[in-house]
Amino acid sequence: MEAENQTEASQFLLLGLSEDLDMQPVLFCMFLSMYLVTVLGNLLIILASISDPHLHTPMYFFLSNLSFVDICFISTTIPKMLVNIQTQSKTISYIGCLTQVYFFMVFAGMDNCLLTVMAYDRFVAICHPLHYTVIMNPQLCGLLVLSSWLVISLVDLFHILLMARLTFCMDTEIPHFFCELAQVLKAACSDTFIDHAAMYVSVALLVMIPLSGILYSYSQIISSLVRMSSSKGKYKAFSTCSSHLYVVSLFYGTGLGVYLSSTATRVSEKNAIASVMYTVVTPMLNPFIYSLRNRDVKGALGRLLSRAISCQ
Asked: pTM score, two decimals?
């Protein structure tokens, strides 16, 4: 009973990126700007995909879902960080921390699944163009997204239920700017063997399998491009998936780097920077990567802005 009361009364201290008081206003302005840019950019992608009939295709359906997830993903961590900086407080409640862990894992997992589904979409479009509309029908697209939400939500709920049985000491310090699963487990006062085992299994299943799917899809795409005789056709086909490749490289490069380095005793400066890259910078850059390198998206955004201006 005493351990239970200790768990219910405990709170965590998020140490953040820097304890230098002079750096706090700089960090606040920087992350607030990045947050607003991320929300606005991804929101424009969603509005353009919904309002423009030219973008009512599976590719842009998945892209709009990715933009929605990216907004939720960054909203899980940055607002709390900004509040802590503004109030000069480092605390987060036990329930708040577990909630942040859950939604962070859900949206990170959804990013992972959507990138895999988008790779499959490009594989079908390039390798089976004559059957594309039949294979990538609205029912299948909706089922892929819905099943991803269901699987990720249930798996991450299992992690939270496992964490709920742990006990934590009062005012436990977490050397991060948000409650990240591996760091919270390190702060537990009770045995975390089962939790760590579940985390490693989840990473193996929910990261390596989708990543393998992406690599397989692009191996088939490259094989198909090699067999094309027209250089113009090769360039056009590759240009449709170049933006996705940039996003995949950025997301997996930084995300896996953080995960592999999280086994260290303390979070290093490089680890913290990498965390910012995949939790903040990647969601912020996604709309720019897809819009600047995509003529259809640029045209849709232009028409959306023109309509907005004409209505004023």
From this structure: 0.89
